[in-house]
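Most newcomers find our protein records easier to grasp once they have seen one. A record pairs a protein's sequence with a compact description of its fold. An example says more than a description, so a record of this kind follows:
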Amino acid sequence: MIKMYNSQLDTFIKVADAGSFSKAAEILYISPTAIIKQINLLEERLGLILFLRTHRGLTLTEHGKSIYKDAKYIIEYSNKAVERAKSIEDSNIIKVGVSAMTPGDSIIELWSRVKEKAPNLKLKLIPFENTLENAKEILANMGRGIDIVAGIYDERLLKMAGCSAYCLEIIYLSCAVPLNHKLVNKEILSMKDLYNEKIMLVKSGNFEAMDELRVEIESKHPKIEIIDFDFYDLDVFNKAENNNTIIISMNKEFILHPLFKNIEIEWKFKTKYGILHSPKPDKSVLEFLKLIDILKNKK
C-alpha cells in the first residue's frame, strides 16, 4: 500500500504499543535489529528521544507521547486522503450511501427515469456501517466519499449536520410493531391502543416531530411509557424485538427490519423525507436533483 507518510511512523506506533523492540519485531515479521535501526533513524531525523530504554522494556518520553498521539492522527488522515483520491472516478458518478437503516430504494426507483433524461450519469452504491459516529461524519462531509443519502430530516438536523436536502415527500411517523406483538394485526392504531405499552422514541434534540410527539405523550397520555434511544440502528430494532416493544418509526412504506410491521397511527406528527447532499453539490448531483424535480412536478 502506497503511503503519504514515512513508514517509520508505523514502526514507532507498533513499538510503543508492544513496549519492546522484540515484541514489535514479531508483530511486523522483521528482525529486532531492523526495528531498532528504524527508531534510531526516526529519533535522529526528528532530533528527539522518543523512548526511555531500560532492562524492563521501553516507555515513551514526553516527546514520544506527543509524537505518538499526532502520529496516529497523521496516519489516519493520510489514509483517508488516499481513499478519497482513489474514490475520484468518472465525474459523472453519483455515490449513494446505503445502510440497513438508510436504504437507497427511493433513489433507485427514480434512477431509471433519470437515466432516460441523462444517460451520462452513473450511480454507485457505497455501503456504510450505520452508527451515530458514521452518520455525523458522512453528513458533515457530503460530496467526498458519499454524495447523497436518502432519509428523514428537518431543518434542525440539516443545521446540526451542515448539509442540505431535497424533499421527496412529507411522511407521517408510524409504529414499527414486532411481528409477535398483540397489536400487529391492526390496520391503524390510536393513542389509546398504546396505553400501558412501552414505546421506544429517539432522544430529544434529534427530530422536531419526535420531540413534539414526546410532549404530546407526556402531557396528555401518561399511560404510555417512553423508552429513549440514541440512534436508529439494527441493535435498537433487535432490542425492541427481543422485548416485544414498539418503536416510533417512519410511515408504513418503510420497512427497516424484517421482524417488524409498520402500522399507521391516528396523529398529526410528520417529517420530511428526501435526499441529503452537500450544500455545494457537484455538477452531476445538481443535474440529478434538477431532473428529479422535473419528474416530480410532472406527476
In short: The mean pLDDT is 89. The radius of gyration is 26 Å. The longest helix spans residues 62-87. The first strand starts at residue 51 and ends at 54.
